[in-house]
């Protein structure tokens, strides 16, 4: 009841506000929740520190679009739950995410970092200042000055193991110039599986992707000091797209791709990226009943106000 009322409220304002230059698979847009003041998220692939996250804002397959074949995937084949959070400049000013993928068969065979997308794999596409357009802007190919496509992939020692993320699960792609990988050094990421140690051919696997990154309004090949760091604030709309790659057969590799974008192309151009509104800590209800839990009706009013700005 409550969820339906919320979605109806969001729809009515979304239809009036959003007209061009983005593509949301749910037709509305998505929400990232400010991490409560007394919560610290540890990037360890364990969702114990996400119990506060209001499940109304968890994104699943029903709010996503399958890009490759426009097919609806059975949830026994691939299911997903995506939670996105943020902190402002009063804290560490980062984007946080936890993505739980439940898959009947795991495939992680890539030995080339740029080709991780052929496996079970997660793409996270960022355009913090919602500029849209090609990730490279008007610059040299592969610079990713205006937008970025990161990948998270189960690190497999000897096969897929990057120098980045903390456990080798993080990589900026595709075909980017070497100098821009400084951005990856800022990422914290961890990918775990349940059961632990799952690998290609394992069945009924849960893959947990947890990450934290700073966002950039402009990224220079000359490093962070010459780049413009984005400052997260409640009420902002950023462009952020998740694309979950699905492979069940090591010969066929990727067959499907579940996205928050409503069409293909976000991997290179954020004119078709999905949008996330940053909700402040007082604009949602804490699922764990912890400190800062908002009054329900007040929460709706603030969400509507955010949309009609
Ligand atoms: Ca954690
Ligand atoms: Ca599957
Ligand atoms: Ca941008
Ligand atoms: Ca799979």
List the helices and strands and how they pair.
Layout: H1 2-17, E1 30-34, E2 65-66, E3 78-86, E4 95-105, E5 121-127, E6 148-152, E7 165-166, E8 170-173, E9 188-194, E10 203-213, E11 216-218, E12 228-229, E13 237-247, E14 254-259, E15 275-279, H2 296-308
Parallel strand pairs: 1-3, 1-15, 7-9
Antiparallel strand pairs: 2-14, 3-4, 4-10, 5-6, 5-13, 6-8, 9-10, 11-12, 13-14, 13-15
One calcium ion binds at residues 41-42, 44, 46, 49, 210.
Provide the helix percentage.
under 10%
Q: Regarding quaternary structure, how should these chains be classified? A: single chain
- Bound ligands, each once: calcium ion
Q: And the CATH topology? A: Immunoglobulin-like
Could you say what the CATH architecture is? Answer: Sandwich
* Number of structural units classed as domains: 1
Largest sheet: 13 strands, mixed
User: Secondary-structure element sequence?
Assistant: HEEEEEEEEEEEEEEEH
The number of helical runs is 2
Rg, alpha carbons: 18 Å
Mean pLDDT: 91
Assign an overall shape.
Answer: globular
Q: What is the first-to-last residue Cα distance?
A: 26 Å
Q: What amount of the residues lies in strands?
A: 25-35%
